[in-house]
Design a protein that fits this description.
By secondary structure, this protein is mainly alpha-helical. It has 6 helices and no strands.
């Protein structure tokens, strides 16, 4: 007689951490709210730490995609907050727009690879990752060109991306309940 352990799905935790943090940041990018401690705290704790935790749990489920996506975007959120906070406190100088644009472009390329991996997954994951690629590239374009319109468009597009992740998290959470 074999005993099979059933583990909880860490996906909703990671997707909510990503989605809710993405929505908050993109309310700012769209020009609807100012950057503030609510966005930064969410980035460190829920977008960052909770996603890394979800990624580690995906490891134990044998889900390489979940491990890679959640731990990577958790690290993204923590690094993003540090990019804002460290220069503010004089720890290091702020990065140039060209360097921030490069940072966002690299994340866009990484996300494009993950998007290709979603082609074997659900349509919802495809929407999240395709819109995230677009989001990173719009934000990078804003940094490279200095044109604020790219950030505003990215903000609204990012709201769609974030709410898409929240939707999938809710769907998976409700599916697990019944």
């Amino acid at each position: 007689m074999t005993s099979e352990k059933s583990y909880a799905n860490p996906g909703p935790l990671g997707l909510m951490g990503f989605g809710m943090t993405t929505v908050l940041l993109n309310l700012h990018n769209a020009g609807l709210v100012s950057m503030g401690s609510a966005i930064l705290a969410m980035g460190i704790i829920f977008g960052g730490t909770a996603q890394i935790f979800a990624g580690i749990l995906e490891f134990f489920k044998g889900n390489t995609f979940g491990l890679t996506a959640f731990t990577s975007y958790g690290a993204f959120w923590i690094s993003f907050v540090l990019l804002i906070v460290l220069p503010h406190f004089g720890v290091i100088p702020a990065s140039s727009p060209a360097l921030i644009g490069s940072y966002l472009t690299i994340w866009g390329l990484f996300t494009a690879i993950l998007f290709v991996a979603t082609l074997k997954a659900s349509r919802e994951l495809q929407v999240i990752f395709s819109t995230l690629v677009i989001l990173f590239l719009l934000l990078a374009a804003g940094e490279f060109t200095g044109l604020p319109i790219f950030g505003t468009i990215a903000g609204y597009e990012g709201l769609f991306c974030g709410f898409s992740a929240i939707y999938l998290a809710g769907k998976e959470l409700l599916h697990a309940q019944g």
